[in-house]
Design brief:
mainly alpha
Amino acid sequence: MLSKIIRLGLTALIFAYAIYEFFEGHIGNGIMLVLLSSLVLLTYFRHERMILALWYMRKQDMPKAQRQVEAIKNPEKTLIKSQQAYWFYLKGLMEAQTNMNKSESYLRKALNIGLRMDQDKALVKLQLAGIAMSRRRKREAQALLTEAKKLDKRGMLDDQIKMFKQQLKRI
């Protein structure tokens, strides 16, 4: 994958060539090159592997989503900060099935970097509450559940939050 600097440099070169084409009188070529440079700039802000991984997650195809996330070798160099948060978010959700320690660290990194959507933050807090409950940390789990409930403005996680609260009563 191309690094961030290479993507910006390529965008600038294509845009400069588009301006040259406009001055030469080749308007159609200039317009096409401007569109091409905007496409390359779009991949700077929205990494193509991350888009595919999120799409596969929505389709419930975890192996393909995991392959897309694993294909990004160096997220610090390849992704911008908000995309790094979603890389850690996806990595944490996938690790939750096998390794709780890694999952917790990835999810906490995602929260620290900053997820954009409140719904994603609520899901991360819910996952962290589940991890805290499995380790018998009742206070931390309750705090995370109340934060998740505040962030879940659409009520999509209400059933899961109620289920976790019932399990907390048993602890």
